[in-house]
């Protein structure tokens, strides 16, 4: 069931989204060669604490997970696509890092992700990240009243495929509100004009995930959470929480 949010609720979600944006900014600022993923997680925790917010990630345990998620960010490095668990791994020159973060404030959730490089960036990684950002922008542009979920999916997928990148099958965006994952699902590839009609008050987490090799295959790492490319190619992940309004898409996690 898809819950339509009131304008007042969307404003409250904007407040939660701004905490997420601040946390991601803090993580990006802290990320450098030699910094551990656990230190990045702590940077995000400090922002949440200061805002009086909690993490919808910490302790989250969907049916596929062997253990509850132990952190407030997902930190996915190089061939990790999404859901990476922060560890003592210290960032190295040229690493490609994707950080996903959420915040719950006054009962409402914001969810967003960024990808960036540490140290000297590989040109191929820069292109991959730029394409992920363009795919996200295209998906947001399609998130208007009167369109359908398939229009968002088609916009994202068209950008990714035209650039020669892969799209992990079965993973994409979702509704968000009182809970981190709500209906509807928002695929990263699909046919335009299909799927649920977009209405004022729907709030979606739109999140392209791209693999550099152009192949869509992935597997779960031994930790049961991290998804990695099958061929070891690098991946990028971007995300915003977006409200569908009569005035156009409103990005609630803008940084």
From TrEMBL:
Which parts of the sequence bind substrate? 83, 181
In terms of CDD domains, this protein maps to: MetAP1
- Name the keywords, alphabetized: Aminopeptidase, Hydrolase, Metal-binding, Protease
What catalytic activity does the UniProt entry give for this protein? Answer: Release of N-terminal amino acids, preferentially methionine, from peptides and arylamides
Gene3D superfamilies per the UniProt record, alphabetical: Creatinase/methionine aminopeptidase superfamily (3.90.230.10)
Q: Which residues does the annotation say bind a divalent metal cation 2?
A: 111, 174, 207, 239
What is the protein's name according to its record? Methionine aminopeptidase
Annotated source species: Streptomyces curacoi
State the gene name recorded for this protein. map
């Amino acid at each position: 069931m898809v819950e339509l949010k009131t304008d007042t609720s969307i404003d409250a979600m904007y407040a939660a989204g701004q905490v997420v944006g601040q946390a991601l900014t803090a993580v990006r600022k802290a990320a450098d060669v030699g910094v551990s993923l656990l230190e990045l997680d702590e940077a995000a925790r400090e922002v949440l604490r200061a805002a009086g917010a909690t993490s919808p990630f910490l302790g989250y345990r969907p049916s596929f997970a062997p253990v509850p998620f132990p952190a407030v960010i997902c930190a996915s490095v190089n061939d990790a696509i999404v859901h990476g668990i922060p560890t003592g791994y210290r960032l190295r020159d040229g690493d490609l890092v994707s950080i996903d973060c959420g915040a719950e404030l006054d009962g409402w959730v914001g969810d967003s992700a960024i990808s960036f490089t540490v140290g000297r960036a590989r040109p191929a990684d820069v292109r991959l990240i730029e394409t992920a950002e363009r795919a996200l922008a295209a998906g947001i542009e399609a998130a208007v009243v009167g369109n359908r979920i398939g229009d968002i999916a088609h916009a994202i997928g068209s950008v990714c495929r035209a650039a020669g990148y892969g799209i992990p099958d079965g993973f994409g965006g979702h509704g968000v509100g009182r809970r981190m994952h709500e209906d509807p699902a928002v695929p990263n590839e699909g046919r335009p004009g299909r799927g649920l009609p977009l209405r004022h008050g729907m709030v979606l987490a739109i999140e392209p995930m791209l693999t550099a090799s152009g192949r869509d295959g992935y597997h779960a790492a031994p930790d049961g959470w991290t998804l990695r490319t099958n061929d070891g190619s690098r991946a990028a992940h971007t995300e915003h929480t977006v409200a569908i309004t009569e005035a156009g898409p409103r990005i609630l996690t803008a940084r």
